[in-house]
Each structure stands twice: as C-alpha cells, then as structure tokens.
Amino acid sequence: MENDAVKLAPSILAADFARLGEQVAEAERAGADRIHVDVMDGHFVPNISMGAPIVQSLRRVTRLPLEIHLMISDPDFFLEEFVKAGSDSFLVHWEGNDNLHRTVQQIKALGKRAGVVINPATPADVLEEILPDVDQVLVMTVNPGFGHQHFLFTTLRKIRRIRQMINQVKSECDVEVDGGIDAETAPLAVAAGANVLVAGTAVFGESDGVVAAMERLRAAVQQLWKQPQRVELRAR
Ligand code: DX5
Ligand code: ZN
Asked: CA-based angle 104:108:109, to the nearest 5?
C-alpha cells in the first residue's frame, strides 16, 4: 500500500463544539479525507452525542465527505433524516442488528456508501456474508461510546485477518480503524492492513493545533514505509 493511500478521518467528538465549523475547516485545509461524525443515543452505548442538525450545519462549511458512525439502537429509522442533512456514508454496527443486510440495502437505496462496524469482542468471521455488499469495514479498536480511550492491541490480529478476507473478496473495500489512534498506534494499524484512520483526540485534542496534529499522524505512518520491519515487530 502506498502512503498516500492511507486516509485520515478526524472525529469531531473531540473537537471544541463552540468552534466546530472552524475546526472542521482547519482539518480540511490540513488534508483530511473525510469527517467522522459519532452519533450516540445513550442506549446502544452509554453516552449521548449529536444528531442530524450538526451534520446539516457542517454541510455548509465543508466539502469533505461526512461519514456517520451510528451507535444507536434503531439505525434504519434515522437514515433518511441524516441523508437530508447532507451525509455521504454510514457506518452501522453488526452488534444488536438482526437485519443488518436490510439496513445496508436501505443505505444503498438512498445512494450512500455503507460500512459495517464490529466491536473489539466481535470476531472477523461475522463479516463473511455481508462483505460483498459493503464499501468499508470499521474495526473498533476501543469499546464504542467514548473518545480518548486506549487502543486495544488485541485488535491488530483481527485487522490483519479482515485485510486478508477483503483481499480475497472485495479488494476495493476500505478497512478503517476507530479509537485510540495516535502517532504510536497509527503505524501499527496500517501495518496490520488498515487504510483509513479515524482520530479524535490525536487531531482535535493537541495543544499545538489541528494542522500540526495531522502532520504528526501522517509522519508516523510515513515512518512505516521507511522502517517497516521495526513497526511490524511491534505490531506482533
Ligand atoms: C468512539 C468513537 C470514536 C472516537 C474516537 O466510540 O467511535 O470515533 O471519537 O476518539 P479517539 O480518537 O479520541 O479515541
Ligand atoms: Zn466513531
């Protein structure tokens, strides 16, 4: 994989909500590839975050694709509202959805990209039947619900396995990782096969600003191409 094939998806969960438009514009200028919007309902995960009005406001300040990570109990019910607000893609969890295929079809029918998400304790094998129908797989590298948690290193093996599955079935499918991604863990995830990195705290929570933070992440991934053996050893 080439370095520029690794995409960055800043998660606004860690942004300063009083300056949200400014911070997203800054991330766009710094070369973000998409904006990750975490939607939580206080039921599917023990936290409440944001809804479609935030997407509607963001749509006015950025041209970047807005990807919506739905951590809610009834994703189907809200899809249309989020599409009207200007969403470009949806990430829906395998967990708690008895009709995942229907949800994915509904997203496709709305003309949007669909991704499936699996939690740290969920094995890669559950993806087998749905893989041909999705545009991306999101591997949670923390338990969903909160930003600023520690990366779970046990997920690296699963990322490698999913990359293998995708190479066999649908090589254009993105492998995205979410949670605890920083300059130390980003190269490990990429070495394992991820090509999209969601980062909240490591982009919006750094004292030297969004541009410097994103440069650090890119430089860390770049290191991988310079010293692949070193990173691969740490990733084991
Ligand atoms: C957690 C969310 C993440 C979160 C990541 O449930 O899905 O997208 O914003 O935050 P960091 O990068 O701070 O771990
Ligand atoms: Zn997320």
From this structure: 115
